[in-house]
Specification:
Blueprint lengths: L3 E5 L3 H12 L3 E6 L10 E4 L1 H9 L3 H7 L1 E2 L3 E5 L4 E5 L1 H4 L7 E4 H9 L4 E3 L3 E6 L5 E5 L4 E4 L1 E4 L6 H6 L5 E2 L5 E8 L6 E6 L2 E9 L2 E8 L5 H7 L5 H12 L5 E4 L1 E2 L6 E2 L2 E3 L2 H4 L8 H18 L6 H27 L3 H20 L9
Parallel strand pairs: 1-2, 1-12, 2-8, 5-15, 12-21
Antiparallel strand pairs: 3-7, 4-7, 5-6, 9-10, 10-11, 13-19, 14-17, 14-18, 15-16, 16-17, 20-21
Length: 366
């Protein structure tokens, strides 16, 4: 018997879901409310488990070819003093390894072979007695499917209809600036922290870096230059380049989603729609792709799709909650005054890195 899955959203989570379903020969339709495919120009930090998920989805080769391997991390003070470093290549050895790459490269790799219906927004859905789901779209058209994967992001329309929940600000910072610029002189993943500010630079392509900046000193563009004026030259140069560019740095809130359940009947939330988490450990894309892989596996293996959401959540929730706890712990540490956090960082930092990533090296499917 042929059964159809509706995937709502064509970001990383939705495209990963489509590819994962396709691997099993399951019929699906992807709808996206935006009228055109994304042309996102920012960067993605992909730890080893994210790259491993891309490999499962058959989308890793193009990402590896375009991105820059993350061999080492350096954590420094606002004055430039090294607090500690991490041999990331060694930690992830024997796995897919970590990569930083342009966001669009990942989207393009996942989109290959996937058809998306753009400018199609879900207005409401209703689960039927026969187990199907009736979906009403904003243009008045309808569709009846056997399962819905809601991959429509932090402000998910599907989640709002099922279990209204307001995203909360991240514990570390309420907002951030992000941009890509010419490499100002860093050769590895480098973060500077202090004075209520964090600035991260990661090589993302030859001659280019991805920058992520968060500050408690305000949200206007002038604040960006002021907040980091006393930071080392790679930071001040990157900021100056970004402010001189035709397109200003992208500023947005950093929001998290914490809800008690990620499914209802034959409707399941995945990725940020279910569990958006601050980017402290760069696990947004990884968790979304893992969600998709495990969900598709269960749909392929389980005859009664009414049970799949519950089975999937039993598998996924412990792993996601581990990331959420690790995110909260480091966020609280980062918010401490520098005189308190910096002395303990050489001990606590490497320990937190290992404690966070060690359980993520292998994707357990049961």
């Amino acid at each position: 018997m042929s059964r159809t899955v509706l995937v709502v959203g064509a970001g990383i989570a939705g495209l990963a879901a489509a590819r994962a379903l396709g691997r099993h020969g399951l019929e699906y339709r992807v709808v996206e409310r935006r009228p055109h495919p994304s042309t996102a120009g920012l960067g993605l930090n992909l730890p080893g488990n994210a790259v491993a998920a891309l490999a499962v989805l058959g989308a890793a080769d193009d990402v590896r070819a375009a991105g820059v391997p993350v061999a080492r991390r350096e954590y420094r003070t606002a004055g430039g003093r090294l607090l500690f470093d991490v041999d990331e290549a060694r930690f992830w050895s024997g796995t897919a390894g970590s990569i930083c790459v342009r966001h669009q490269v990942v989207l393009d790799a996942l989109t290959a072979g996937v058809s998306v219906d753009h400018a199609v927004a879900v207005a409401s859905l209703e689960q039927q007695a026969d187990g199907s789901v009736n979906v009403l779209f904003a243009d008045g058209s309808e569709d009846r499917v056997d399962f819905v994967v809601a991959a429509d992001g932090v402000h998910s329309t599907v989640r709002s209809a099922l279990a209204p929940a307001t995203p909360r600000p991240s514990l570390m910072t309420a907002a951030s600036w992000r941009f890509i610029t010419a490499n100002p002189g860093v050769d590895c993943w480098t973060a500077w922290t202090g004075r209520g500010c964090t600035f991260l630079l990661i090589p993302v392509a030859p001659g280019e870096v991805y920058a992520y900046a968060s500050s408690s000193q305000g949200v206007d563009i002038a604040t960006l230059a002021h907040a980091y004026a006393a930071f080392p030259e790679p930071v001040t140069r990157a900021v100056a380049q970004a402010l001189a560019a035709p397109v200003p740095p992208y500023h947005s809130p950093v929001e998290e989603v914490r809800i008690p359940t990620w499914h209802h009947g034959r409707v399941t939330l995945v990725g940020d729609a279910a569990h958006a988490t601050g980017p402290v450990w760069a696990q947004g894309a990884a968790m979304a792709m893992e969600d998709a892989i495990i969900l598709a596996d269960l749909l392929a293996e389980t005859d009664d799709w009414s049970t799949v959401g519950s089975l999937w959540e039993q598998v996924r929730r412990p792993r996601v909650e581990h990331v959420q706890r690790a995110t909260d712990q480091l966020s609280r540490l980062a918010r401490l005054p520098s005189w308190l956090s910096h002395p303990v960082a050489p001990l606590m930092g490497p320990r937190a890195y290992r404690a966070t990533y060690e359980p993520l090296r292998i994707l357990k499917k049961t």
